[in-house]
Amino acid sequence: MNKKLGNLFKGDKGIWTVFFFLCLISIIEVFSASSTLSYKSHNFMEPIIYHAGMLLAGLFLTIVILNIPCRYFKLMTPMLLLLSFATLLWVLAFGESINGANRVIQLPGFTFQPSEVAKGTMVLATAQILSAMQLEDGSGADPKAMKYILWLVVPAVLLIGVENLSTAVLLFGVIFIMMFVGRVPMAQIGKLTGCIVLIVGIFLTLILTLGSMDGDDDKQQAETTMLTANNTETVTEKEEAMLSKVFHRFGTWRNRLLNHESKPENPKDYSVRDNFQVAHSNFAIASSGIIGKGPGNSEEREYLPQAFSDFIFSIIIEEMGLIGAIAVVFLYVILLIRSARIAGRCENNFPAFLVMGLAVLLVAQAAINMMVAVGIGPVTGQPLPLVSKGGTSTLVSCAYIGVILSVSRSAKRKDSPVRLVSAT
Questions:
Q1: Phi-psi sector, 236: left (phi>0), alpha (psi -120 to 50), beta
Q2: Cα–Cα distance between 298 and 318 in angstroms, integer?
Q3: CB atoms within 10 A of CB 4
Q4: What is the pLDDT of residues 196-254, one digit of tens each?
Q5: Rounded to the nearest 10 degrees, how much is the dihedral formed by the CA atoms of 219, 222, 228, 231?
Q6: I want to staple 22 with a disulfide (CB 3.0 to 4.6 A). Which of 14, 157, 171, 386 is the partner?
Q7: How far is CA 357 from the centre of its chain?
Q8: Vertex 10, ends 412 and 28: CA angle to 5°?
Q9: What is residue 28's three-state secondary structure?
Q10: HEC profile for 187-206?
């Protein structure tokens, strides 16, 4: 029996341990945090049955992928790139709206979120480019590597960023780290950093300026105008619709930034109504203590609209206390460390870059979710990987784990760890 299980759950045991513990925490906390969904559906068990089904499907997907030799992932890149760009364009034009943004494609009994697939695809393609363009003398990547990566990644980031800015920023940040790890020349990294700082400054100015024209419901309340050389002309209805399509999220981004930055000196001046999610997340954390209230005893789950997703870490802290919060953080740290060890044992650069890219993507997303929950960062809408309730996000996160396990199982090894970062 143990031998059969060993054959089924192949790969790095540390990764498997982290995976199962996160799934266990997910089932317990999603079951507790889904009370509002249970009330709406008039079925106490429906939300957790759906989520448990998604985790089982994810487990099956993980097992299937870990049995694919890592060299075959390269063959999937063209198909995944075509799928990613086609669905990203489709969701912008015909996607279903979630929280005021077109992010999903409605399928029979299921919603598909293209950005989740696009993230992994960009990591896969970047790993392939970096590995193929390492110089023979071992000094690092060819200077042309950054150009090829940006040509591929920037369009995807722009398509994602129109409706999901936080995911676009997360993806580009991970690709930036991969280029650094992949030994892209530091002079190019420095120039890219300068360009990023300039673009971020311009973009923040646009958000703070154009965002003031939007209401809380992301609809423009002021008439859209365009300046010409001599006068101000009212744009046509068609042009206004196009501008609204591009800028309709600016109001939401502006409000999130301002609400995060504007914290009154006197706590009595704090508006719970204007900071509803963050306020109740803080209530959950403040009432937790060292050991928490115990599983199923959360009170703030009744008030947090996304308690089972974006703010599930707040519910974990409320029910499991500081000890539970540290345990969850520790699991993601183990995931990153074990992935780094797997990458260090790889003989070839491609699997090493791929494993590190996917691990950084998962851990960075987890860090963003937890930072939002504890009030360090503005609200972003990023789920906690393998823990938050979700459809596409759950399956894709399981697929990432499957790829990491596949590399740990089938990648060739060498005696000394690969040196991924150049000192110059």
A1: beta
A2: 6
A3: 8
A4: 899 888 877 777 676 555 544 444 433 333 333 344 444 454 444 444 555 556 566 56
A5: 160
A6: 386
A7: 13
A8: 130
A9: helix
A10: HHHHHHHHHHHHHHHHHHHH
